[in-house]
Amino acid sequence: MSRSPDVAIIGGTGVYDVPGLRLGDAHVHDTAYGQALLRFGRFADDSGSSAEVVFLARHGTEHTIPPHRVNYRANIAALQDLGVGAVVATAAVGSLRRDLPPGRLVLLDQFLDFTRCRPSTFFDGDGRVEHTDMTQPYDATVRKLLIQAAQRAGIELESRGTYVCTEGPRFETTAEVAMFAGLGGDVVGMTNVPEVVLAREAGLSYAAVALITNLGAGLSPSPLTHEEVVEAMEENAKQLADLLAALFCGFARAHKE
Ligand code: HPA
User: Fold this and answer.
1) Is 185 inside any structural domain?
2) Which segments of the chain does DSSP mark as H helices, in order?
3) Which of 60, 64, 143, 177 is the least buried, fewest Cβ under 10 Å from its Cβ?
4) Domain count of the chain?
5) In-domain check, residue 202
6) Cα–Cα distance for residue pair 64/61, rounded to 1 Å
7) Is 186 helix (H, G, I), strand (E, B) or coil?
8) Distance, CA 216 to ligand 1 centroid (Å)?
9) CATH number of the domain within which 243 lies
10) Which residues contact ligand 1 via a Cβ below 6 A?
11) Is the alpha carbon torsion for 100, 213, 37, 121 positive or negative?
12) Could you list the mean pLDDT of each consecutive 10-residue stretch along the chain, which spans 257 residues?
């Protein structure tokens, strides 16, 4: 690869590649925190300009790593080593609001952290005492690029949303969903913390797009299953892929200018 990747995609549940993105074989990247599995690729637009992309499947290529066991530190450290310009993560989420139904895309702007036992910092016992500002955890520039990409592609994207991160891997109780909604949460998932936190600690420009796959427990008419989440992701994968393709076109165009 001749230059650092323009953008890294951390693909969540149901997102293992992006149509139009030519990805190479998986490549193991060693970090101080363990290994990350990366695939490098190139996205060419109609005029022949291209964006360099690196793709990381958060749950592994065969979806074998549950949310509480993802090696978030290795993943983010690997992207930091590569010097990526921007990181865009995808996440399957449950909705905490009936007016945000399954199928909607939400660009996250805040989080509430209910995780319990995950390594969640790079500043851990090496003599450095650091407290990272988290006032606006998601990068404003990458958020703007995603909003513009959605407009260009004619995709409806909620421009803000508060993500509640649970420890998982179980889904929530009815009472938890009611509490999270009462606290100001919009969507609930199991992976965005510590990913966004580590990205900020590492100085990466990180934003995340959540796809609502179901109404949260108790709002949903039936008990939740992982299969339901995967099916909803499959049904809506196209709009997410179109959004990412429009984003890549923006990076490709920037190289031409
Ligand atoms: N809760 C937690 N994580 C999820 C959900 C949910 O309802 N849907 C998809 N990921």
Assistant:
1) yes
2) 72-82, 140-153, 174-182, 192-201, 226-256
3) 64
4) 1
5) yes
6) 8
7) coil
8) 7
9) 3.40.50.1580
10) 92-94, 166, 171-172, 188-190, 213-214, 216, 224, 229
11) positive
12) 84 85 93 96 87 94 90 98 96 97 97 96 89 97 97 96 98 98 98 98 98 96 90 90 92 76
For residues 27 and 38, the answer to whether their CB atoms sit within 8 Å is yes
What is the 3 state secondary structure string of 47-80? CCCEEEEEEEECCCCCCCCCHHHCCHHHHHHHHH
Distance CA 181, CA 60 (A): 31
Model pTM score: 0.95
Six-digit token pair at 231?
Answer: 């099916």
In a domain, 83, yes or no: yes
Query: The tokens of 237 are what?
Result: 């994968």
What's the rounded Cα separation, in Å, for the pair 158 and 75? 27
Pick the closest to residue 202 from 91, 116, 73 (CA basis). Answer: 73
pLDDT in the model for residue 19: 79
CA-nearest residue, atom 9 of ligand 1: 93
Write the residue with the smallest CA distance to atom 6 of ligand 1: 94
Please answer whether residues 117 and 231 qualify as being in contact, where contact means their C-beta atoms are separated by less than 8 angstroms: no
Q: What are phi and psi of 167, to 5 degrees?
A: -75, -35
Domain hosting 159: range is 7-122+139-256
pLDDT for res 14: 85
CA–CA separation, 230 and 86 (whole Å)? 26
Asked whether residue 130 is domain-assigned, the answer is no
